[in-house]
C-alpha cells in the first residue's frame, strides 16, 4: 500500500489525548482550517490532510475509477485513521466531507466518537415535490460544462457566490484555492459531489452528529439541514448567523463557539 501519510499530505499537530480530524470541502485543502485549528490544538490532537487531487497530496495516486464516487474518499479517511492507529475520533467535515465522514462512520463506527458537519448535504439535486436540494439537474450540468470549457472563469464566478461575504479578500482566497486545482480532477470531484445521493445512508448512521447550517447558503439551503436533522438519529441542529458556505473562513469565532459548545455538552 502506498504511504498514506504522504499520499494525503497528513499533518499531525496538537497535544490532547482525543483526536480531531478536519476534512476539507470540494475545491479546498487543509489550509482552509487555518482560522479554526489554533483554538483546538491545546486540548486535542489535530489531523489535517488533503484529499488526493487537492492541496499538496500525491497527485500520482489519483485514480479516476476509485474517485468517481465519494467512496474512494471515504477509503482515504479510513486509511488515515488506520495508519495512525486512532480511535474515538471527532471528525469535522466541511460540505462534501460531512457525507464522507458519515459514510466512513457507517463502515467503521468503532473509529468515531462524534461527527460535526459544516454545511452538509446528502443530495444537492431537487427531486420533484419530495426533496429540495437547491439545484436542478440543468444547474449542475451547466456548472460541470463551465468547469470543462473555462475553468478559470468558473473559479472566479463560483468563489464569491459560495463565500457570500462583503470582504473581497475572502472570495479571492477561495478563488485561488479553486484555481490551483487540476481542472480534470476538480471536475470529477464536482460530479462525484453534486450528483451523489446519500439520503438512503442516513438511517445507517449511528455516531452522534452536530449539523451546523449557515443562515444564507447558496450551496445548501436551510431545508437541507432540517432534512438531515430529521433523518439522522442522534443529531443536533444549529442554525448559524453566518452567511455563505464557508463559515470556518468567514465567521471563525461563531464556528469555534458552536463546535466547543457541542463538544463540551455531549
UniProtKB/TrEMBL annotation:
Supply the InterPro entries for this chain. AB_hydrolase_1 (IPR000073), AB_hydrolase_fold (IPR029058)
Give the keywords, sorted: Hydrolase
Listed GO MF terms:
hydrolase activity
Q: Where is the AB hydrolase-1 domain?
A: 19-252
Q: Which residues form a coiled coil?
A: none
Family of the protein in this entry: Belongs to the AB hydrolase superfamily.
- Identify this protein by name: Alpha/beta hydrolase
Which species does the entry assign this protein to? Paenibacillus anaericanus
